[in-house]
């Protein structure tokens, strides 16, 4: 059947009908009073989601634009930074930092394992001269389904007293709590096509007071991503450059839906879907890539034991369900099941049931019919 594709990938994620309808509105002038009012409302909603009093700046670009903006607006060439790397997007931070001439020291963990907060603590405590300017990491590592212990790492950075915490929250914001103020986070970057329940095209970055102080010292080149321009424009309920007007309409609609659901309910839903997905795949005899207890509420990476790409192909051909594959050395070895954003219990249960059916059809493992579905359902409706 045509037009029945179900996205169960870590992004883009499914988009609600009312968000699509909002995006289909006729554009209005981005310097108009009506658009200023929309920006003001969206700002309040974004601060609610980020759990912060800091301004949330809207960029027309992907989450990587927000990540890059976080670096070039707070650091200077030659600055010493610690970068956490336990997956594809931790790797991206390392590449980004090195591209701008930063002195990068990498704190690594194997793909599938969480970053160890003790490693950051040791490096920061050894820095008696306070030369480390930032600790940079990914909260939810999309490539492996691992949720890093951001709260503990940020606490160690705060104890250091000088370094900033710069974090990629692209697949964690909207899926789990990221209380920017209470955790003392300095730069938080995210993207629209994940937990925000809308199409790609917008990214978001928020800076703490300490990060804005670092902005004044930063000497890295910037123009379009100069966050000072965005902050100045935001005080006037405007933007420095032409924004994606219709995506802002979509953003307002999506955030309004999240507000109606309630912050704690949103996080509880994602946690329930993580638990159901993990229980379902385990009941099929499959292994999880992420270390036990460190699975992301946004994405579950599964080691099927057979040809992961063949399994993905059959999922799409038989059921029009799209799963993500592995990246780099994990290509062909894992499938990644997204369960973030506009995803409901039915979607999770359907994906688990479809995976079970495909594995049985392909003769992968020794699966007891219905085992995965029963285990997932028990987590959804305990």
Automatic annotation (TrEMBL):
Residues involved in substrate binding: 336
Signal peptide annotation: none
PTM annotation (N6-(pyridoxal phosphate)lysine): residues: 194
Entry GO MF terms: alanine-glyoxylate transaminase activity; L-serine-glyoxylate transaminase activity; L-serine-pyruvate transaminase activity
Enzyme Commission code(s) on record: 2.6.1.45
Gene Ontology BP term (one): glycine biosynthetic process, by transamination of glyoxylate
One Pfam family of this chain: Aminotran_5
Annotated ranges, domain Aminotransferase class V: 10-327
Keyword terms: Aminotransferase, Pyridoxal phosphate, Transferase
Cofactor: pyridoxal 5'-phosphate
InterPro entries: Aminotrans_V_dom, Aminotrans_V_PyrdxlP_BS, PyrdxlP-dep_Trfase, PyrdxlP-dep_Trfase_major, PyrdxlP-dep_Trfase_small, SP_NH2Trfase/AEP_transaminase
Family to which the UniProt record says this protein belongs: Belongs to the class-V pyridoxal-phosphate-dependent aminotransferase family.
The protein's name: Serine--glyoxylate aminotransferase
Organism, as annotated: Candidatus Synechococcus spongiarum
């Amino acid at each position: 059947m045509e037009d029945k594709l179900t996205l169960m990938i870590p992004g883009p994620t499914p988009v609600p009908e009312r968000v699509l309808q909002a995006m289909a509105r006729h554009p209005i002038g981005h310097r108009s009073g009506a658009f200023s009012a929309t920006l003001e409302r969206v700002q309040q909603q974004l601060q609610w989601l980020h759990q912060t009093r800091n301004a949330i700046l809207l960029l027309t670009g992907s989450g990587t634009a927000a990540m890059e903006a976080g670096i070039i607006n707070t650091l200077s060439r030659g600055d010493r930074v610690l970068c956490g790397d336990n997956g594809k997007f931790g790797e991206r931070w390392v590449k980004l930092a090195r591209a701008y001439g930063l002195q990068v020291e990498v704190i690594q963990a194997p793909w599938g394992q969480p970053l160890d907060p003790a490693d950051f603590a040791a490096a920061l405590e050894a820095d008696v001269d306070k030369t480390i300017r930032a600790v940079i990491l990914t909260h939810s590592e999309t490539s492996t389904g691992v949720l890093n212990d951001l709260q503990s790492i940020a606490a160690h950075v705060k104890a250091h007293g000088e370094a900033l915490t710069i974090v990629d929250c692209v697949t964690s914001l909207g899926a789990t709590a990221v209380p920017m103020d209470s955790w003392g986070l300095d730069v938080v970057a995210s993207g629209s096509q994940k937990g925000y329940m809308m199409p790609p095209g917008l990214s978001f970055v928020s800076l703490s007071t300490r990060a804005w102080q670092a902005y004044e010292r930063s000497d890295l080149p910037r123009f379009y991503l100069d966050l000072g321009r965005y902050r100045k424009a935001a005080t006037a309920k405007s933007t420095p450059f032409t924004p994606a007007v219709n995506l802002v309409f979509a953003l307002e609609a999506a955030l309004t839906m999240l507000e109606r659901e309630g912050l704690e309910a949103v996080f509880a839903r994602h946690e329930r879907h993580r638990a159901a997905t993990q229980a379902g795949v385990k009941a099929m005899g499959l292994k999880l890539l992420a270390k036990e207890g460190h699975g992301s509420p946004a994405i579950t990476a599964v080691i099927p034991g057979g040809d992961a790409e063949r399994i993905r192909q059959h999922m799409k051909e038989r059921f029009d369900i799209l799963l993500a594959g592995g990246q780099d050395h994990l290509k062909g070895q894992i499938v990644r099941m997204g369960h973030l954003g506009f995803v409901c219990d039915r979607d999770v249960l359907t994906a688990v049931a479809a995976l079970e059916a495909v594995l049985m059809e392909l003769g992968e493992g020794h699966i007891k019919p219905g085992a995965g579905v029963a285990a997932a359902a028990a987590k959804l409706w305990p």
